[in-house]
Amino acid sequence: MSSLEHKSITIFKETVLPGESKTINMEIATLHTMTKLKIPIIVERSKYSGPTILLSAGLHGDEINGVEIVRQIITKNINKPKTGTIICIPVINVFGFVNQAREFPDKRDLNRVFPGSKKGSLASRFAFYLLKEIMPHIDYAIDFHAGGASRFNAPQIRIVPKNSELKKLADVFQAPFGLYSKNIAGSFRNSCDKLGVKMLLFEGGKSVNINEEVTQEGIEGTKRVLDHLGMLNPKKEVTYPEKPTIYITKSNWIRAKYSGMFHGYTSIGNYVVKGQLLATISDPYGKIEFTVKAPNSGYIINVNDAPIVYQGDAIYHISTQISDV
Known about the structure:
By secondary structure, the chain is α+β, with helices and mostly antiparallel strands. Helix content is about 20%, strand content about 35%. Strands 8-9-11-18-16 form a five-stranded mixed beta barrel. A four-stranded antiparallel beta sheet has the order 15-14-12-17, with no helix packed on it.
């Protein structure tokens, strides 16, 4: 169904007409205590026809910064569209959010089980109903994520290579960085692509953390996309950064060669040159100290904030190739 027809939409047997606002509770399962868990789907529709966009977060329950971005979009009334429909799901994996855990209670990563199954595992069932009930109405989507395991991501948009429509939307969002990355089998983004939904995946910050700078990057980028689509509430102002997005076509992880206490000397988003000192790894007794140097020149787009690392841990994500277009 094309939302441009501007007909009524029905989600979990709840109908929302043009010009209406409604919160629809998704109830698929309960806690082991039999306590019901409701996942609010917040629908705001304009009287005037236009696209339908989904703003979602919390696919991984411990990625709280994305939840904060969508929450502020709602509290600031940015989700009240000039045209079309804006659907917000601040927390998809409410089980993980309650426990501040990445996975579902069945230990599955929701972002690896799409398109899911009506009679599968708990995570698989959530994936199934998300695609069945919500995504048929969606034209565009922005899904908000954060880095895991103490790894802090620079604000970035991830899109598949050689997709001119997504590249244009990423240009409009104008995050500090853009990463070209292929869709992963079983991911929400991969299923959306197969359904024809144009999705931007936002990464920023780290798990179990809220960073105000990352939050503002997510909010302002979303406003720019809504403005581009003719959907932004006319009461909301939109600003554009002076620097265009830096697109990274290739990147590598720098991994710890030794275990020990980690002391980082470079900040997220910095450009470093080959051989530059990035960090030291030391023993706790003051006898041994190993240096970590940049293997190549590039931008640091992820930093490990953990005070202690083990041999093989990812400690920095560095660009190795930048796109000119």
